[in-house]
Amino acid sequence: MKKMLAVVLMMLFAASLAVAAEDVLTKLDKNKDGRISEQEYLDRVSESFDKLDKNHDGAVKPDELQSMDKDKRDKLIKAADTNKDGALIKKEYEQAARKRFSSMDKNKDGYIDKKEWGASLSERNKSGLILFTF
Ligand SMILES: [Ca+2]
Ligand SMILES: [Ca+2]
Ligand SMILES: [Ca+2]
Fold first, then answer.
1. Around ion ligand 2, which residues have CB less than 5 A away?
2. Structural domain boundaries in the chain
3. Cα of 49 to ligand 2 centre, how many Å?
4. How confident is the model at residue 78 (pLDDT cuts 50, 70, 90)?
5. CB within 10 Å: which end of the chain, N or C, has fewer?
6. Which helix (DSSP H) or strand (DSSP E) does residue 20 occupy?
Protein backbone atom coordinates (compact mmCIF):
# COMPACT_ATOMS: atom_id res chain seq x y z
CA MET A 1 0.00 0.00 0.00
CA LYS A 2 2.76 2.38 0.96
CA LYS A 3 4.60 1.53 -2.21
CA MET A 4 1.53 2.41 -4.26
CA LEU A 5 1.30 5.74 -2.57
CA ALA A 6 4.93 6.47 -3.28
CA VAL A 7 4.42 5.66 -6.93
CA VAL A 8 1.36 7.88 -7.14
CA LEU A 9 3.21 10.73 -5.45
CA MET A 10 6.11 10.36 -7.81
CA MET A 11 3.77 10.47 -10.78
CA LEU A 12 2.12 13.58 -9.46
CA PHE A 13 5.49 15.19 -8.93
CA ALA A 14 6.60 14.34 -12.46
CA ALA A 15 3.34 15.68 -13.85
CA SER A 16 3.68 18.97 -12.00
CA LEU A 17 7.23 19.34 -13.30
CA ALA A 18 6.00 18.79 -16.83
CA VAL A 19 3.28 21.41 -16.40
CA ALA A 20 5.76 23.94 -15.03
CA ALA A 21 8.11 23.30 -17.93
CA GLU A 22 5.35 23.82 -20.47
CA ASP A 23 4.28 26.98 -18.73
CA VAL A 24 7.71 28.45 -19.12
CA LEU A 25 7.89 27.34 -22.71
CA THR A 26 4.59 29.09 -23.45
CA LYS A 27 5.88 32.28 -21.89
CA LEU A 28 9.06 32.23 -23.93
CA ASP A 29 7.24 31.43 -27.14
CA LYS A 30 6.24 34.96 -28.10
CA ASN A 31 5.05 34.23 -31.64
CA LYS A 32 3.11 31.12 -30.48
CA ASP A 33 4.50 28.71 -33.00
CA GLY A 34 5.02 26.10 -30.29
CA ARG A 35 8.81 26.33 -30.17
CA ILE A 36 11.47 28.71 -28.95
CA SER A 37 13.72 30.43 -31.43
CA GLU A 38 17.17 31.66 -30.45
CA GLN A 39 15.88 35.22 -30.57
CA GLU A 40 13.00 34.46 -28.23
CA TYR A 41 15.42 32.79 -25.85
CA LEU A 42 17.93 35.63 -25.94
CA ASP A 43 15.23 38.25 -25.39
CA ARG A 44 14.35 36.53 -22.17
CA VAL A 45 18.00 36.09 -21.20
CA SER A 46 18.57 39.78 -21.73
CA GLU A 47 15.61 40.60 -19.47
CA SER A 48 16.91 38.30 -16.77
CA PHE A 49 20.34 39.93 -16.96
CA ASP A 50 18.82 43.36 -16.43
CA LYS A 51 17.02 42.05 -13.38
CA LEU A 52 20.20 40.58 -11.92
CA ASP A 53 22.21 43.73 -12.57
CA LYS A 54 20.76 45.53 -9.59
CA ASN A 55 22.91 48.67 -9.76
CA HIS A 56 22.65 48.84 -13.59
CA ASP A 57 26.35 49.21 -14.26
CA GLY A 58 26.20 46.65 -17.06
CA ALA A 59 27.95 43.92 -15.08
CA VAL A 60 26.62 41.28 -12.74
CA LYS A 61 28.96 40.70 -9.83
CA PRO A 62 28.87 37.89 -7.27
CA ASP A 63 27.46 40.19 -4.60
CA GLU A 64 24.46 40.83 -6.83
CA LEU A 65 23.85 37.10 -6.84
CA GLN A 66 23.58 36.70 -3.08
CA SER A 67 20.08 35.27 -3.32
CA MET A 68 21.49 32.27 -5.16
CA ASP A 69 23.24 29.56 -3.24
CA LYS A 70 26.99 29.69 -3.42
CA ASP A 71 27.40 26.51 -5.37
CA LYS A 72 25.07 27.62 -8.16
CA ARG A 73 26.53 31.09 -8.20
CA ASP A 74 30.06 29.74 -8.61
CA LYS A 75 28.93 27.41 -11.39
CA LEU A 76 27.18 30.19 -13.23
CA ILE A 77 30.14 32.54 -13.04
CA LYS A 78 32.55 29.81 -13.99
CA ALA A 79 30.42 28.92 -17.01
CA ALA A 80 29.84 32.44 -18.28
CA ASP A 81 32.79 34.59 -17.19
CA THR A 82 34.99 34.21 -20.26
CA ASN A 83 37.57 36.86 -19.34
CA LYS A 84 37.78 35.58 -15.75
CA ASP A 85 37.44 38.93 -14.03
CA GLY A 86 34.76 37.63 -11.66
CA ALA A 87 31.97 39.76 -13.13
CA LEU A 88 29.56 38.95 -15.93
CA ILE A 89 28.92 41.52 -18.60
CA LYS A 90 25.92 41.12 -20.84
CA LYS A 91 27.98 39.90 -23.76
CA GLU A 92 29.43 37.08 -21.67
CA TYR A 93 26.03 36.22 -20.31
CA GLU A 94 24.48 36.11 -23.76
CA GLN A 95 27.34 34.08 -25.13
CA ALA A 96 26.81 31.48 -22.40
CA ALA A 97 23.09 31.52 -23.15
CA ARG A 98 23.75 30.93 -26.84
CA LYS A 99 25.91 27.94 -25.98
CA ARG A 100 23.14 26.74 -23.70
CA PHE A 101 20.62 27.16 -26.50
CA SER A 102 22.60 25.12 -29.00
CA SER A 103 23.17 22.35 -26.47
CA MET A 104 19.41 22.18 -25.89
CA ASP A 105 18.70 22.20 -29.62
CA LYS A 106 19.49 18.53 -30.12
CA ASN A 107 18.41 18.26 -33.76
CA LYS A 108 20.09 21.59 -34.66
CA ASP A 109 17.12 23.11 -36.43
CA GLY A 110 17.52 26.43 -34.62
CA TYR A 111 14.50 25.93 -32.39
CA ILE A 112 13.81 24.35 -29.04
CA ASP A 113 10.64 22.32 -29.34
CA LYS A 114 8.63 20.84 -26.51
CA LYS A 115 10.53 17.58 -26.49
CA GLU A 116 13.93 19.23 -26.45
CA TRP A 117 12.80 21.60 -23.73
CA GLY A 118 11.58 18.75 -21.54
CA ALA A 119 14.73 16.74 -22.10
CA SER A 120 16.93 19.64 -21.07
CA LEU A 121 15.19 20.11 -17.72
CA SER A 122 16.99 17.40 -15.79
CA GLU A 123 20.29 18.41 -17.36
CA ARG A 124 19.80 21.97 -16.27
CA ASN A 125 19.16 20.88 -12.72
CA LYS A 126 22.49 19.11 -12.75
CA SER A 127 24.45 21.86 -14.41
CA GLY A 128 23.26 24.49 -11.93
CA LEU A 129 22.68 27.00 -14.70
CA ILE A 130 19.40 27.97 -13.17
CA LEU A 131 19.48 31.42 -14.70
CA PHE A 132 18.89 29.87 -18.05
CA THR A 133 16.07 27.71 -16.75
CA PHE A 134 13.34 30.31 -16.45
CA1 LIG B 1 8.39 30.79 -31.04
CA1 LIG C 1 33.81 38.91 -17.07
CA1 LIG D 1 15.42 21.81 -32.22
1. 81, 83, 85, 87
2. 2-132
3. 14
4. confident
5. N
6. helix 2-28
